[in-house]
Amino acid sequence: MDFDRVDKILKAYGMKETHLVSILLDIQTEANFLPREILSYVAKKLGIPLSQVCRFATFYKAFSLKPRGRHVIKTCLGTACHVRGAVKVLQTIERELGIRDGDTTRDFKFTLETVNCLGACALGPLVVIDNDYYGQMNTTKVPKMLKDY
Ligand code: FES
How many beta carbons lie within 10 A of that of residue 126, not counting itself? Predict the structure, then answer.
């Protein structure tokens, strides 16, 4: 992502720090994460301390300071999913992809994350890849689910 594009996003929000979260969301949507040099640039252009920008960038789980994969896998470890075997599902995904929770595959195809509830507890154990829901997951379904991508 180049600085010209960041300037356009900043201008779209009137160069106002009150829109910082929206600005960061737009940058992440385009860059797939929040590069450090872009955060510094945003701070400078808005005339606010870098620490203030970083506070927002690290507070919200929706933001990532590391490059993310093209597909984001969210494995629910909330209570309803946990009691139905979500940990084993997560371990199988980790083993299949060779990464741990919070990591991205070397080819940047997948990023693996865990969440505490996806709001569809009746479907648990639940895994969401991008916007696709995989309910009643178990360890044997994991390889086929990943092959869909
Ligand atoms: S606990 Fe998994 S969706 Fe709610």
Answer: 26
For domain 71-147, give the fold. Glutaredoxin (3.40.30)
Task: Report how far residue 34's alpha carbon sits from residue 26's, in angstroms, rounded to the nearest whole number.
Answer: 10
Distance CA 35, CA 19 (A): 18
Residues with CB under 6 A from ligand 1: 76, 78-81, 117-121, 124, 126
Q: What is the value of pTM for the model shown?
A: 0.79
State which amino acid sits at residue 121: C
Domain ranges in the chain are: 3-59, 71-147
Q: How confident is the model at residue 73 (pLDDT cuts 50, 70, 90)?
A: very high
CA of 138 to the centre of ligand 1 (A): 15
